[in-house]
Design goal:
- The complex is a heterodimer of chains A (317) and B (312).
- Chain A is elongated.
- In chain A, 67% of the residues lie in helices and 0% in strands.
- In chain A, helix 5 packs antiparallel against helix 6 (144-158).
- Chain A has helices at residues 15-25, 34-44, 49-63, 65-68, 106-142, 144-158, 162-173, 177-203, 207-214, 219-256, 267-273, 283-310.
- By secondary structure, chain B is an all-alpha fold.
- Chain B is built from 16 helices and no strands.
- Chain B starts with a helix and ends in a 7-residue tail after the last helix.
- In chain B, 42% of the residues are buried.
- The chains are: A mainly alpha (317), B mainly alpha (312).
Chain lengths: 317, 312
């Protein structure tokens, strides 16, 4: 592989900077199609098969949780409480991963938890993507004070201490999915806005946009019909990288008591349930955490490879 | 440069101002502090009297204006709970968080820099892939769960280290690994990409051609140059660690600002919440400003592209 041009700032440690550098190179891949790229990518990197399978399993489990889990995720059975996993001395085979302090089946709770995580990730990403893309299009297309205002708000939301925000929201509304989604939008919209803005800045000088404008096509129509379709592929790549982020965010907020409240089988709630039992019943916290780890790691590996593939300048990283 | 400097500083101030607005609105959303401060026996007169002392009887716009005026003078008000200066309430806890943050940052560097260097030298090999997976693990491991697993292994099972609380270096080990692990992936990537650039440079080629030992070339000549980008971002990474400390502090019962966040929100202690919010926001904005200015100083194209039209 030849040595390519060094990036302006290397690969950055923080996501805001990451979005910035992603945006800077995005103009290179205006016409690429992500689906074909994914197949090509898997052909080249066989190691990606495992994480892809994990992700497929995650989606399938999430979609079909009520049919897959044999036991209710919330029904308590105090007589069965803190049963160890099946392979340990006191374990029973129909509670494969053991039970928690209320006798609920951990395996069933993890399966239902996948549904919660999947839903949170999808809705969180769609919402942030929609808000961020819309504002990014406006900022890039109109420039001037619109741009300045939107970008200052973006800077401001990145400077927000998210745990303070999340706990305040939990106090105001009580814990719930709504808080998680709002915090996710607060954290993520600017990544989409920066990406969309940067691409629009270069696209709007291109002939097809200039021509559309000369023909009198309205600004909203130019943005929706001419600019949006061209920036969509890179926004999809950006989204794959956020899946794991949103799942960890939900789990963390739920762990802190500011996200999805018990007795819902959120993976974060389950880890929190086992916190006080860590010395006596390790399985209560361990398995839901492993589920988070597996899904998020797979998501990051696939998203990363996908981005490197679409982004020639980052390919060597 | 002066013009670019000025425009970036103005941007930072505008951002900070927007943040004060959010902090103010957000704290007022949490409800009436009087409900928490006074018990059910309090009469309407009691409530009015306390509201007056705390300045809560005025219209919101006036409250905000007073808040902004005092903040500009460095007066952030008194804690509703203790009636002591809110700023000193926060500052008493800050050293704990700074201690944890510093230790975590060192742990992070100790893990990330060697992996970054080795994966750059052995790029596109199994070692490279393994290093990458290891670093990505850092981002995939939820902090709170990693903390619990470390407690399970090193405190419960092996009994080597304390499971939480403070006192001595031993108490710092598990929390700083937990928190530091989170930034490993980012630092590793920076080091790796900088190393790849540096290893291709002429002075490295020359050093190798002279027959210098490969170890010295990589770890001394190349690494020294490759550390510039990671060091530039050091401040931003550090602030990210301090912000993320809330979760680690909760898991390990660490008495830092993170714990104060939870206490003060529960108590509707507006002045304290606002200071924490602004403190972290200001640190974040300040560190990013530093990074931008460093890059502008190093690369004239940046300051010419944005704002500084004089030299065009």
């Amino acid at each position: 592989m030849s040595v390519s041009e060094p990036g302006p700032a290397g690969s950055p440690p923080t996501s805001s900077v990451e979005a910035r550098s992603l945006a800077a190179v995005s103009e290179l891949r205006v016409t690429r199609r992500p689906r074909g790229e994914l197949i090509e990518l898997v052909r080249r990197r066989k190691l990606l098969i495992a994480p892809l399978l994990v992700l497929v399993a995650f989606v399938v489990v999430g979609l079909s949780a009520p049919y897959l889990a044999r036991l209710s995720p919330t029904e308590t059975a105090l007589g069965m409480k803190l049963t160890p996993p099946a392979w340990l001395a006191d374990g029973v085979s129909d509670r494969p991963l053991g039970t928690d302090q209320l006798g609920r089946d951990i395996a069933s709770r993890i399966i239902h938890g996948a549904r919660l995580s999947l839903m949170t990730a999808l809705v969180g990403i769609l919402l942030s993507g929609a808000v961020g893309t819309a504002l990014g299009l406006l900022a890039g297309y109109y420039g001037a004070w619109v741009d300045a205002l939107i970008m200052r708000i973006a800077d401001m939301t990145l400077a927000i201490h998210i745990y303070v925000l999340a706990i305040v929201l939990a106090v105001v509304w009580g814990p719930g999915l709504r808080n998680v989604l709002l915090v996710a939008v607060f954290l993520l919209w600017s990544r989409y806005a920066r990406q969309a803005r940067a691409e629009v800045l270069s696209l709007k000088e291109r002939e097809f946009v200039v021509a559309a404008r000369a023909l009198g096509v309205s600004a909203p129509r130019i943005m929706a019909r001419h600019l949006l379709p061209n920036i969509l592929p890179s926004l999809i790549v950006l989204s794959t990288l956020q899946v794991g982020f949103v799942i960890v965010l939900e789990a963390t907020l739920s762990f802190l008591g500011a996200g999805i409240p018990p007795p819902n089988p959120s993976w974060g709630v389950m880890v929190a349930d086992g916190r006080a039992l860590i010395a006596s019943a390790w399985w209560v916290s361990t398995f839901p955490g492993l589920a988070i780890l597996l899904v998020v790691l797979s998501g990051n590996l696939v998203g990363d490879a996908f981005r490197d593939r679409l982004d020639p300048r980052l390919r060597r990283l | 440069m002066p013009r670019y400097l000025l425009s970036r500083i103005i941007q930072a101030i505008v951002t900070l101002w927007l943040l004060t607005l959010v902090a103010f609105v957000m704290t007022r959303l949490t409800g009436n502090p009087l409900d928490v401060l006074l018990d059910a026996r309090a009469t309407e007169e009691d409530r009015a009297a306390v509201a007056q002392v705390l300045g809560l009887d005025r219209p919101l716009a006036v409250q905000y204006a007073i808040y902004l005026r005092d903040a500009a003078r460095g007066d952030f008000g008194d804690s509703f709970k203790t009636r002591r200066s809110a700023l000193s309430t926060v500052m008493e806890r800050l050293p704990w968080t700074l201690e944890l943050g510093t230790a975590s940052f060192l742990v992070s560097l100790l893990i990330a820099v060697p992996i970054g260097v080795i994966t750059a030298v052995k790029r596109e090999t199994t070692i490279d892939m393994a290093g990458k997976v290891l670093a990505l693990l850092g981002q995939a491991l939820p902090t709170f769960w990693l903390g619990l697993m470390l407690i399970l292994l090193f405190a419960v099972t092996l009994g080597w280290l304390p499971a939480g609380g403070t006192g001595g270096l031993a108490h710092l080990v598990l929390p700083s690994i937990t928190l530091g692990w989170f930034t490993v992936a980012g630092i590793m990537r920076l080091v790796r990409s900088a190393m790849l650039d540096t290893l291709a440079e002429e002075f490295v080629v020359t050093a190798r051609a002279k027959g210098l030992p490969e170890l010295g070339v990589v770890w001394k000549h190349a690494l020294r140059n490759a550390m510039i980008p990671p060091l530039t971002y050091a401040g931003v990474v550090f602030v990210a660690l301090l912000g993320g400390a809330v979760v680690t502090e909760t898991v390990f019962a660490w008495p830092g600002v993170g714990q104060l966040v939870i206490e003060s929100i529960t108590f509707r202690d507006f002045p304290v919440i606002q200071i924490i919010f602004l403190l972290f926001g200001a640190m974040y904005i300040g560190m990013n400003l530093v990074v931008d200015l460093l890059y502008a100083w190093a690369d004239p194209r940046i300051r010419l592209a944005e704002g500084d039209t004089r030299l065009r």
